[in-house]
Amino acid sequence: MERIFLIILFLALTLERASAEKILFAENFSHGLSNGWENVAFFKTPTDYQAIPDGTNFYVRGVAEKTCSALSRKLDLAPPAKLKLRWRWKIDGVNPNGSERDLKKFDHAARVFVAFDTFIGPPRTLNYLWANVEKIGAVLEHPKSGRAQIFVLESGNAKAGQWLTEERDVAADWKKVFPDKPMPKIVGIGLMTDSDSLGQKLTGGYADIELIGE
Asked: Taking 80 as the threshold, does the pLDDT of residue 20 lie above it?
């Protein structure tokens, strides 16, 4: 009887949590890249992004070979008190000569980011990175700008070729790196595979991206 009660309690708490969550943005790429996505090349040769079928699902494959661009989607979302980001990703492999700290070696197979409104200058971003060599759990500034903060979630080739599911507490991450600034309006979400610095071919896959508020 006690076991049945615990199961019922667990199910009730799970349903309560699910009902409190609100999907603010979701993309499974089943309609390709025509749904507001833009390939932003930063005055460089753009990475090739394509929506690819994968069984009954779809994903975006980014292939970079001496190229650099971000596939981004503009948003206009008021920041909720709680904000989570979920997605799936995989890579074919990292560049072991790449770096998370040296701009001249700053190439990566996979990166997901959320962009926030700023009164002056470019948006601040939280970047979730599959690193080349940096340790998992590291939090770094982008070597070009402190407006872009980097969270290392995966690193190296140990899990290359596998689909991995990630979930981040974006509100907590924002508070960690910008503690003196309230989280502003969310103005974009994106992904990025690039190899313009060292030129080695890199491939990243991205699927089932969600922003969840509460």
From this structure: no
Q: Which two tokens stand for residue 71?
A: 């596939």
* Cβ atoms of 168 and 128 closer than 8 Å: yes
Residue in 105, 100, 81 with CA at minimum distance from that of residue 20: 81
* pLDDT attached to residue 98: 98
| pLDDT range class, residue 213, cuts 50, 70, 90 | very high
